[in-house]
Design goal:
alpha+beta; 8 helices; 17% strand
């Protein structure tokens, strides 16, 4: 009797393990997962007992490592600076990020017109433990117009992802062992298909863990800067100059439009005038008395 039925049965059992892990309310699947995890824990305990002189480590300590709180910190800050100090403020913000061990993610500066103040944005990231110092430093670069801080605790998700990664790694090892023992093409293909799916889920889980590590290790501060200048002024001088400029532009547009209309209609008017003159000439000739 060949080993193919036994191999296929083990593959089917391993295929049910991820679903059982995510759906703990299912008693049958949960029993299978518990048996697999118990076997993995027993083997790990045996290895550690051999290496450590027979001292037994509780399974709860092995399976649930200590995890520091994982918090994503973000902030957005709008500042205004005196006219001519915009570039200096941007440089100071860059220096704050560098001094605290962070970096600049993006930077943008724009000016609508040559005579208008500068405005732009700057996004920096600093180590989470330096977040408070970074906020205090960038807040002093100008006058605060708006400020918003937020945080998201992802500790529970992080622990769940780590548990899922350990489970998938155990399934991957068992599938690799089954693949080595497969004695038929059908059994090998069945194991390979489940192995590919398990490895895909494992990479997705690891990718999410790396993303959370990055987001929780560095805080993100989005900074908006603008110069205080004539754009925000409410004095009459600026408004009068603007009104004269807008009026001159409107007048030129009207003149240009009128010229286009006249240039388009002039040939038609000329033809109409010539036709009217010819009609008058013919009518006078007919109305003139015949010579006696």
């Amino acid at each position: 009797m060949t080993k193919t039925p036994l191999v296929l049965a083990l593959v089917l059992l391993l295929a049910l393990l991820p679903a059982a892990c995510s759906g703990a309310d299912d008693n049958d699947a949960g029993g299978s997962v518990a048996a697999a995890e118990t076997g993995a824990a027993d083997s790990a305990q045996s290895d550690e007992a051999d290496a450590g002189g027979g001292e037994e480590v509780p399974a709860s300590v092995q399976d649930v490592p200590g995890v520091a709180p994982k918090v994503i910190q973000t902030a957005s800050l709008s500042l205004s600076v005196a006219k001519g100090e915009y570039e200096e403020a941007v440089t100071d913000a860059r220096n704050v990020a560098a001094r605290l061990g962070g970096f600049v993610v993006s930077s943008e500066t724009n000016r609508a017109h040559a005579n208008q103040p500068l405005r732009g944005s700057l996004t920096i990231r600093v180590p989470s433990e330096r977040y408070a110092a970074a906020m205090a430093a960038v807040s002093g670069l100008g006058r605060i117009e708006s400020e918003n801080e937020g945080s998201e605790d992802v500790s529970a998700e992080y622990v769940d992802l780590q548990s899922r990664a350990r489970h998938l790694e155990a399934v991957e090892r068992q599938l690799l062992e089954l693949l080595d023992r497969a004695d038929t093409v059908a059994a090998a293909l069945a194991v390979q298909g489940q192995l590919s799916q398990t490895q895909l889920e494992l990479e997705q889980t690891r990718g999410r863990i790396r993303y959370l590590d990055n987001q929780t290790s560095y805080a993100t501060i989005a900074l908006k800067l603008r110069e205080r200048g004539v754009v925000q002024a409410t004095g009459g001088d600026w408004r009068i100059v603007d009104a004269w400029r807008d009026g001159a532009r409107a007048f030129l547009r009207v003149v240009a439009g009128t010229f286009v209309v006249v240039a388009t209609v002039a040939p038609l008017l000329l033809l109409a005038l010539l036709g009217w003159a010819g009609f008058r000439f013919v009518r006078r000739r007919r109305a003139a008395p015949a010579p006696s």
